[in-house]
Amino acid sequence: MQPLPSTNPWDDDDGFHEECGVFGVWNATDAAALTALGLHALQHRGQEASGIVTLSEKGGFHAHRGLGLVGDIFGDAKVMAGLKGRCAVGHNRYATTGETALRNVQPLFADFEFGGLAVAHNGNLTNASTLKRALVRRGCLFQSTTDSEVFVHLIAISLYANVVDRLIDALKQVQGAYSLVALHDGALIGARDPMGVRPLVLGRLGAAEGGAYVLASETCALDIVGAEFIRDVEPGEIVVIDNNGLRSIKPFGRGQSRFCIFEYIYFARPDSVMEGTPVYGTRKRIGAELARESHVEADVIVPVPDSGVPAAMGYAAESGIPFELGIIRNHYVGRTFIEPTDQIRHLGVKLKHSANRPTIEGKRVILVDDSIVRGTTSKKIVEMVRQAGAREVHMRISSPPTTHSCFYGIDTPEREKLLAAKHDVEEMARIIGADSLAFISLDGLYRALGHAKRDAGNPGYCDACFTGDYAIPLTDLEGHPERVPVLLAANGQ
User: Fold this and answer.
1) What is the dihedral sign for C-alpha 168, 23, 202, 410?
2) pLDDT tens digits for range 82-110
3) I need a labelling partner for 102 at 20 to 30 A (CA). Which of 84, 280, 429, 491 fits?
4) Which pLDDT score, from 0 to 100, does residue 413 have?
5) 218: Cβ–Cβ under 8 A, 6 or more apart, which residues?
6) Binding residue per annotation — 462?
7) What is the pLDDT of residue 332?
8) Per the annotation, does 12 bind a ligand?
9) Which of 262, 242, 284, 46 is nearest to 148 (CA)?
10) Nearest to 237 by CA among 144, 171, 282
11) How far is it, in rounded angstroms, from Cα 16 to Cα 370?
């Protein structure tokens, strides 16, 4: 799905942003409330907008969508009372460029010959523009600017008889990364792209709910509704859940799995389990590996909260240096009442983070963070720690240098704006003002994930943001070389 803009004037967009999370439930009492809870657990995957579509027992669909956080949109009892039914799908959206508009909020809904269909999509299609041009020439009228609407029109023009076959027909025409949940009056459907880049898990509620099934982007969303984790939806798999139970369809054959490696580093909630691997423990192992690779003498290990905390804990345990919360995060930052002039905006980082002076004054500090994107936030953090009296500031990053943009569902700046794409590590250290800077190596990251090293022939993860190894074709970019002058060459295309 294409992103929309942040409207927070304090946001310098120095970071990665997951674009969305999906949730679906089949045959449960108060499905809308369960979906709202699931979306609340997935709030970290999208904070710009949210929506729920339900299917009532009489066959009618009910929908509510809004801009903002889940609690703001679905905290009204009247809204929830209008979302009747035992089946529902929901969607959280993150957006960073383009117009913020209600028409782009998912789940998308359309009436077809076979009945209504609601679709929620996590990911990004790399041939959406190419398909859209062809669909418009056929007379399709697009109502939004999201690439997710391509699914709706491909399903509409398919010549297959039933909705599942039409969906398979549509999926065989798209390229890119996607996890889908779709709801029609006969079934709840979940699907992952053939390489499994984006996550999707299957769970089941207890006997009190009649064994209702749940689909979600992460296991933390199963936990909040009390659903038992069954398994991950497999790459290239379509699961169809109806009143007869669950069936699996695998129309794409077996291919190489390329699960997004950044889910382990940053995107997923720490209490989630991804592809059978607990995220929290993985992040601690990454931190320990980082300490083994690039340790420097220091007095205290300080995480850049919140995403740097588990890695910093692992670093501290491996190095034997005390772990301290030398930076405190304000979790209640929103839109400010202060007009953000250039002078005031410069202080904006202090709205989100403040130095805990007694823990760092006069000390040699190792800062642990998950990534450096543009470098502007890292520079402000280092400066803030120095102003709090740190004698030395060393930055350690729990991911390899980010040298390439992501085109598979993560919002990243253009490559020319990525600090690591233009500078070596020594230059980056000078730019952000650190005494030293080090990133975990690519092989070190793979070791933390349980591999001896990265296998270039079959890495098992999508790590294109570090390597330029784009496993899925970038069809829409092939006609626009000015956007990614080195990107396609890096992929051997």
Assistant:
1) positive
2) 999 999 999 999 854 335 688 999 999 99
3) 84
4) 72
5) 21, 41, 42, 45, 199, 201, 268, 269, 272, 274
6) yes
7) 73
8) no
9) 46
10) 171
11) 10
Residue 307 annotated as part of some ligand binding site = yes
Q: Can you give the pLDDT at residue 479? A: 58
Annotated catalytic residue 220: no
3-36 burial: b if 16+ Cβ within 10 Å, else e: bbebeeebbebbbbbbbbbbbbbbbbebbbbbbb
Kindly report the length of the chain: 493
17-255 belongs to which CATH class? alpha beta
Fold of 278-456+486-490: Rossmann fold (3.40.50)
Half-sphere exposure of 370 (CA within 13 A, CB side): 22
Q: In angstroms, rounded to a whole number, what is the distance separating the alpha carbons of residues 277 and 129?
A: 35
* Distance separating alpha carbons of residues 329 and 367, to the nearest angstrom: 14
Q: What is the pLDDT of residue 154?
A: 97
Q: Crossing angle, helix 149-157 and helix 163-171, to 10 degrees?
A: 120
Does the annotation place 370 within a ligand binding site? yes
Per-residue pLDDT at 14: 61
User: How many Cβ atoms are within 10 Å of 139's Cβ, its own excluded?
Assistant: 8
Residues of the chain short of pLDDT 70, as ranges, are 1-19, 95-100, 207-210, 333-350, 479-493
Per-domain boundaries in the chain: 17-255, 278-456+486-490
Confirm or deny that 369 is annotated as ligand binding: yes
Q: Which residues contact 124 (CB under 8 A, 6 or more apart)?
A: 1, 2, 19, 147, 176, 177, 178, 407, 408, 409, 410
Catalytic residue among 20, 87, 140, 220: 20
Question: Which structure tokens are listed for 318?
Answer: 């491996």
Domains 17-255 and 278-456+486-490 share a fold: no
